[in-house]
Amino acid sequence: MPPPRTKEGGDPRGRHWDPGEEEAPEKWDWNCPETRRLFEDAFFRDEDYIRQGSEECQKFWAFFERLQRFQSLKATSKREKDPVCRKHSVPALADLPRTYDPRYRINLSVLGPDTRGSRGLGRQPPERVAEFRRALLHYLDFGQKQAFGRLAKLQQGRAGLPIAQYGNRILQTLKGHQVVVVAGDTGCGKSTQVPQYLLAAGFSHVACTQPRRIACISLAKRVSFESLSQYGSQVGYQIRFESTRTAATKIVFLTVGLLLRQIQREPSLPQYQVLIVDEVHERHLHNDFLLGVLRRLLPKRPDLKVILMSATINISLFSSYFGGAPVVQVPGRLFPITVVYQPQEAEPAASKSGRLDPRPFLRVLEAIDGKYPPEERGDVLVFLSGMAEISSVLEAAQTYAGRTQRWVVLPLHSTLSVADQDKVFDVAPPGVRKCILSTNIAETSVTIDGIRFVVDSGKVKEMGYDPQAKLQRLQEFWISQASAEQRKGRAGRTGPGVCFRLYAESDYDAFAPYPVPEIRRVALDALVLQMKSMNVGDPRTFPFIEPPPPASLETAILYLRDQGALDSSEALTPIGSLLAQLPVDVVIGKMLILGSMFHLAEPVLTIAAALSVQSPFTRSAQSHPECATARRPLESDQGDPFTLFNVFNAWVQVKSERSRNSRKWCRQRGIEEHRLYEMANLRRQFKELLEDHGLLARAQAATPGDSYRRLQERRERRALYHLKRQHEEGGGRRRKVLRLQEDLDGGSSDEDRGPGDSVDIQDVKFQLRHSLDQLQAATSSAQDLTRDQMALLKLVLGRGLYPQLAVPDPFNSSRKDSDQMFHTQSQQGTVLHPTCIFASSPEALHTQERKAGAGQASRDDKDKMSSKHQLLAFVSLLETNKPYLVNCVRVPALQSLLLFSRSLDTNGDCSRLVADGWLELQLAESESAVRLLAASVRLRAHWESALDRQLAREAQRRWPEVDQEEEAAPVDHKEVADLSRDLLQFAASKVPYSLRRLTGLEVQNLYVGPQTITTAPSLPGLFGSSPLSPHPTKGGYAVTDFLTYNCLASDTDLYSDCLRTFWTCPHCGLHMPLTPLERMAHENTCPEAPQDSPPGKNVGPLPKVSALQRPYHCEVCGEDFLFTPTDVLRHRGRHL
Amino acid sequence: MEGEAERCPLGVFTCQLCALTAPYSYVGQKPPDTHSVILLEESYIMKDPFTSDKDRFLVLGSKCSLCSRLVCVGPECSLFYSKRFCLPCVQENMDAFPQEIRQDLEKRKTPSKRPASQPGSRT
Fold it and tell me: Which residue intervals make up region (Disordered) (chain A) (predicted)?
């Protein structure tokens, strides 16, 4: 098809572009907005390729100006020689244009206004119209060339990857086998290419699991780009809070945890044809479990294909686990790396101070400066074991950098803010090297280009787990050979590199070949719970690729039984099956369930979410006092969970006042806003889960009343979507050039700088996902919690966190604030995290306020009688250089122990109590002791039964025969109200007592031991209706499954329970000498006494017994008596 | 996001010279969803994968008007001079083309190879 005929089309000389030959009398100005608009009106209409006012339109004019400059240059240079073109014999060549014109090289044509009979341009000079049209043509052609160039480059890049030659082999092998192992080192392209090979081969239901969420997103992005469906939904990702998956999605990248949940729902995984399990060599807990699940699934799904992708580490393990699955091994793309061993001489002074000696690291920097000219680019990546090590090297390296002006030093670890983490991708100015001080995060998770030198300390800090103490311990280890190689490899990604190992070659040889798999290092509670809920059978016999230590499994099972998630036959309880669906720690899951029962859902949701994410507090408050000051009003003297609660609420408040900038607000307070976004997401997920399980009434869809409001809301949302899309198209953050050495923050990416940053994309996403109004309504109602609600909330937290309790050291009040010490059952001398409220205001925990100038008399709380003793309930115990209690809340000691202890032991008159065999409570009056004890027995039974019924009803509801939407709150409203009232009353009781941790020796000799008398004493109704039976090991009598009466060995109170005084019952007028215990028993059962609590359905009415005496058969003398309990004791004493 | 690329893939375009492949969704001179642009050759077209704009298209290639080989529009494989010619055919019939094109091809003989640079990524 010939080019559309236009007047100037045949003019080979392009003379109308020549400014020297300007024909028009008046000066023609393309820059005149009027002129431009005329042309835009004609050419850039809505149905045209370029639209008026679009970004494209601006680009065109920029191109137009460039083209004009170029044309004018060309027009003056060579234009004279007419090309000679002979008519060709081949017909296809015969009709080529005789004279050359660049436009013959353009394979498209624009229909202009004249061909379309348009208006407007009639009065414009035709040569100007032609000029414009020609420019437009060139512009479109340029766009085509550019896009095609990208496409070609993309394909070249893909074809150049080491794995490209193995694509067919992988597909072939997969045809003949159900499982294939693809082994290749970082950089071979397996993660991005294998899914695309499958796609090209026609597979359309492919799942690819990743251990990390961030990898799901970045891989989905990359793969969709490479497979040319960047703007389609062929490739998607699915992570906890986000999904881009649609019905059209053929490849989905998802986290291992999410896939496991899908299996939980549909065990045969019918939605997938091919499953790619990436990074299996990292041996994450969930990955190991997934492999076991898959191995069992494969025989049932013979059509399912599985590809395991691994670094070239321990490949045979995976292959043989799947019955000798074939392995396709792909060489990595690495440049040669020189290894230099620089063992440190026996560390002298450094180890004493506990700080890492930065000198060996500085020596490497010096060596690099000495050996390599600054114009030879190449950055340094230093692997250190932890944050403390990073900061000590950072300090020294920054001093060095300041002196030499040749370095930009940047830290990299997971607790940095996202913006700070991103700085490592920025580039250093010419002549300056980047030195990145990183934890092992840069070993596999983060890939930084341009690294030429790697400095490897050979150390790593890993979370170890002590199953006995349930203590997480961050310990420093030597790395494995596999990690050392991985670290080394980071130096050879872009060119030949050097790896400095700050240890000896003999050390390397002694390293373990592989890192310890996670399953051998962590608590298995969550895993066991998940296994139970997936019905995979006994965790002890599950065919793990490498079994976990049996002790860890047993601890986990025991723990879950203790927590009520498993019953005595290790089957999942209703609460357990609910907990299994909450993606959180068991303790936090319990809080959610308990909280929703007491209508405290809103605050508990926030607190549970807050306790499930990393602390939002950055370390800046330690160095910036103004941060700490700004944060202070948010702190709660009740404990960290409440501080976090305040922070979140205040933040939502700031966000809902649109005029204020929440990002700035956070920075002023040293808060990482990203964590708050995570909290909001998690909170919403929790809420939905509770709603799904009927524990929370579903909020009515808050439809704004009038249509105007609705319309406005829809418009706002659309605007937000638009912003989000714009941001995504902009490709997010661009790399910046780092600035050389300024303050210690030394970096480039100030979030607030630059006009492009005016949109807070996090905020946009947040607003799209959450109804700010709803959130604000929920939080503002929670902000002013009543005293009762607060007390109840603390009980909920306490019960959730139990048995994670710590008792303050008796000498704390005489210690410095920062030296406050606490003891848990298994760990003595734990300390508080510096961000903890009780570290800065420890007086909140002291039994009485220190009076100014008070004497030395009561300097400590040891054995002091007080009604204000408190314990700390904590979320986790973390050992780094010291054991730290993380996220503490203070709870009243006596009441908490009575309500939560798994084991409570008493002496004869109940004035001495031992909780869980480690905390001793000594009450001043036995009478109040018995009263509280009895109340706690009753309350616990009520609480338990209400919870059970709620969960049981919920279990029924999930498989309903009929739709039971109508049904109101699961447990009777009044019952909950009564229970709350009783609990509050109980929590508020003021009884003086002393509190102390038992010594090891005391623990050993705690109990009287089994007694020969087997018949129970009768204290009717004292502890409810339960019959008493002798405790087989402790001695005394088991009253309930947690309470054992009179089993404590003691020499002091032998007769205390026998002392009778005259007493008159206020209800029935009974007047007789009674022991405190007898008195209590009577009071509890007095027929005239008002019932102080409604009888719970399961508790049953308390038996009315009017006499204290019961028939008693003595095994020793063989006689029958009518005895009061104390009579029994006295009688028994006679036989001793 | 309804995904235009996967809406109607007619087939996979493969350049017979460089083996570039891409799914095409239209063959002809009038790209769908585009009113004002027409093509001067029968082209294999896909929706431009690098923009979210639905009516942007990308010409992948067409048949050489001499040997009928299907070739991509890449400058290493073909050129357009009022018609599509694959480079081997151009080389054979060099004299049929104007001097500007011959000069261009001369320049192209010393190809500049740039390594594909990839942005730093987290995997």
Answer: 1-27
